[in-house]
Amino acid sequence: MKVYAYQMDIIWEDKEANFLKVLHWSKQTQPTPGSLIVLPEMFATGFSMDTDMTQESANGPTESFLKRLALEYSCYILAGLNFSREKGKPGNDALLLNPEGQRLGHYSKIHPFSIGQEDKHYAAGKKIQCFHLPGGLRLCPFICYDLRFPEVFRRALQGTEAPHIFVVIANWPDTRTTHWIRLLVARAIENQAYVIGVNRCGSAPLLNYDGSSMIIDPHGKTLATAETKEGVCHAEVDPEEVNEWRKRFPGFQDRRDMNEVHLT
C-alpha cells in the first residue's frame, strides 16, 4: 500500500481554510486509489485549547469533509480531530475512514500533554486500536505525546495480531525536533515495524513547527521525509517486509515478563 503524509502549515482555528489546503495538496499529489492519506493531529484547527470551537459531534463538518475526500480519491484517510463526548471533556482523536467514506473507527490520545495544559481541556483515551487494511496490513495509530511512551507501542504488539505499521500524527514544536526524529526511528527499530510520523509545519500563536514528517521502515531506514516545508511525502509499505524481518530476527521471543523482574 502507498502512504501519503500531508505536512500542513495549519491555519489557526480556521476549519474551512484548512479543508481547502487539504484539497489543494490532494489535487497536486493525485494519490493512487486505495492508498492511505494521513493528516496531522487536529489538522483543521491547530493545537487549540478552545474546545468550544474544536470539538464536533460525529458527522460534523470535519468528519463530513474527510468522508468527501475519501470518496473523491478512493483512499483511506487517517486524520486528527476532536469528538465531543456525552459527558465531560472531548477527546483528541484520530479518525480512520475507508475509500467508501465509511468510518472504520477512531483512536483517542492516551497521553494528553499536561505541560501544555491539554489534560485540562481534553480527556485521556483508554484503548489502543489496531485496524485491518487491505493486503493483510494492520495499522495502529497514536498521537503526538504518545510517542514518548514506548510502553504503549510494545503493549500494541501483545495483541493476537501485532500491527505492521504505527502512525503518529502530531503538532510537535521545533524546539524538540531532534527528539521527534530520534523517537520515531527508535519506535521503528525496537518494534520492527513501519513508523509514519506526520507533523505540521509553520507557525501558531505560541509555537513554531519544523515538520520533519517521515516514513520509516522496520529497520529504521527513512523511506521519505517532507523536511521542514509544507508538502506531501509518500512511500510504499509492505506487511511482508515486517513479517519477514520479524522471522529473521525474532527478538520478541526473548522478551521477559516485567512482572517477574523486581526493582531493588
Explained architecture:
The chain is an alpha/beta fold. The protein contains six helices and 14 strands. The protein has helices at residues 15-29, 51-54, 61-73, 150-156, 177-191, 239-248, and strands at residues 2-7, 36-38, 76-81, 93-97, 103-108, 131-132, 138-143, 165-169, 194-198, 201-203, 208-210, 214-216, 222-225, 231-236. A six-stranded mixed sheet has the order 5-4-3-2-1-14, with helices on one face. Strands 6-7-8-9-12-13 form a six-stranded mixed sheet, with helices on one face. It has a two-stranded antiparallel ribbon with strand order 10-11. The mean pLDDT is 97.
Defining traits:
264 residues, alpha/beta, six-stranded mixed sheet, globular
Nearest-angstrom radius of gyration? 18 Å
Task: Write down the secondary-structure element order.
Answer: EHEHHEEEEEHEHEEEEEEH
Strand content: 15-25%
Question: Structural class, please?
Answer: alpha/beta
Q: Largest sheet at a glance?
A: 6 strands, mixed
Question: Could you tell me how far the N terminus lies from the C terminus, measured between alpha carbons in angstroms?
Answer: 47 Å
Tell the overall outline.
Answer: globular
Report the strand count. Answer: 14
Spatial strand sequence of the major β-sheet: 5-4-3-2-1-14
pLDDT < 50 runs, ≥5 residues: none
Proportion of helical residues: 10-25%
The residue-averaged pLDDT reads 97
